[in-house]
Amino acid sequence: MNEEVPGMPEVRSFSDRAAMGAAAAADVADELRARLAAQDAVRMVFAAAPSQNDMLDRLVAAPGIDWTRVTAFHMDEYLGLPADSPARFANWLDRAVFTRLPFAQVHRIDPEAEVAGYAKLLAEAPIDIVCLGIGQNGHLAFNDPPVADLDDPEDVKIVELDRTCRQQQVDDGQFPAFDDVPTHAVTLTVPRLLDARRLFCVVPGAAKRHAVERALHAPVSAADPATALRTHPAVTLYLDAEADPRA
């Protein structure tokens, strides 16, 4: 049972996705510059989802960041897709950010490899920054309500995807039909994500409004995995007007 006292993330709301993405990117860039000024290297984890597009485009263009001292990871990956499938998250992130910046290293999840290998890479040093979103069912990464464990002893694991999560991938335009979406994936667990020093959570769109409401106000539990964000001391949540349940 998670014994930490729930708090409330900093919530920043904007009129549209472009303004939301610009603000989130500016904050991530500021965090990167500050950490690179104080330490030799930075390690960060990226989510792969259309919800992150606006933020990533602005972050790629941000000045004054020595990306050659930044190591990148991604947080989840489908099982069963061909290596060249555009729907694979590693390929999506290559297009969105990984091949657009001169990272020191990029560690992509190999869905055919043992998950312990990726967990070992993550554990080599602290993770400084996680850029993530919230799913329509409240998931963080691929920790859907049926499989999420807020006290998971694992750092990386294979999970079965919830039907709501799979339908979201169709709604987001990543797959033509529900049956095309893989049934299983590799994911960083909730505790592994929350072990990072700083979290930036970007959540646009009306389809996410209910999940945001639950994340901010439902009891902290695996029934609403995003509620776990309230147990972390350094989370900022970025919303557009459509996603903001207070609007």
Automatic annotation (TrEMBL):
It comes from the Bacteria. Keywords: Carbohydrate metabolism. InterPro entries: Glc/Gal-6P_isomerase, Glucosamine6P_isomerase, NagB/RpiA_transferase-like. Residues 16-230 form the Glucosamine/galactosamine-6-phosphate isomerase domain. One of its GO terms (molecular function) is identical protein binding. Gene3D superfamilies: 3.40.50.1360. The keyword Iron does not apply. One of its GO terms (biological process) is N-acetylneuraminate catabolic process. GO terms for cellular component: cytoplasm. PANTHER family: GLUCOSAMINE-6-PHOSPHATE ISOMERASE, GLUCOSAMINE-6-PHOSPHATE ISOMERASE NAGB. This is Glucosamine-6-phosphate deaminase. It comes from Pseudonocardia kunmingensis.
